[in-house]
Specification:
The protein is an alpha/beta fold. It has nine helices and 14 strands. The termini are far apart.
Amino acid sequence: MKTLPSVRILATGGTIAGAAASSTQAGYTSGRLNLKGLLNAVPDLDRLARIDGEQFANVGSQDMSFDIMTRLAREINGLLVHEEIDGVVVTHGTDTMEETAFFLNLTINSSKPVVMTGAMRPATAVSADGPLNLFNAVAVAADPAAKGRGVMVVMNDRIHGAHSLTKTNTTSVETFLSPVNGLMGTVVFGKVKFFRGPFRKHTVVSEFNPEYDLPLPRVDIVYACADMPPDLLGASVERGAKGIVIAGDGNGNMNEDTIRAAAGFARQGICIVRASRVPTGTVGRNVEVDDDANGFIASDELNPAKARILLMLALLKDRGVEEIQELYYGY
Ligand code: ASP
């Protein structure tokens, strides 16, 4: 008889492990259930894979840190070198899932599947979505076709690539979308279907790894709005920011005063990346803002949160503006 694939589950908390006092109340606390509690709610997992697991952390993902993310990447890299482990599933809160997914996509050095999942409803809720999400995530991690696709997120029957997904709704189970370049596939009651691969560099072809000394270089996000005060940039730099991502309006725009202030910091060697507060679309170079003249970088397809992560890793090494711009086109 063929042996089933072996999948390791690393639990980090989130609403999938959340509990409320009643099954219909909106308020709850993330990260209350442990891994055993999560697994008990999912029947038939053992028909998909041989499961082993570890309680890696237990936080709401609003409290996810680069310390935990870095340890997680190192742990996964350590696990995946073992021939007997076929894939890893990470349970995680949905708030910052896209950030951890993108971070792992850059720092994992294996082509074996790494699949993240979570839930929008706590484990105690009527129609909790966590158990089926976990079942589907294990099905994807155990599927040989999932190899070489980078880090994926499985939620609500959808398979998203780490590069493309974003959280779009505060409460709905249909919260994750991949608005810029689409879904990677679907998974319905464990039946996996892939439509396409990831479009950008990831995992084994990524030049990044999690072997560095913390803290990572500080990069702040400044949210653009009508009549924005430019002095927030100075506050970031004073506190040690080596880079600033502008969550710009429209195509990564900001008002004239902020452009002037940002160009001044760019001349001092602070990396200024223009992303967008708009949930979908790309930020192109030299569209309404003269990036060449101001020394700015365009985030291309990355939203502000992911653009920040790429810059934090990029700034571990001395790189010029042009080289960093190429990273945004590549990852
Ligand atoms: N605040 C929760 C978290 O990110 C939300 C969730 O998991 O859906 O941990």
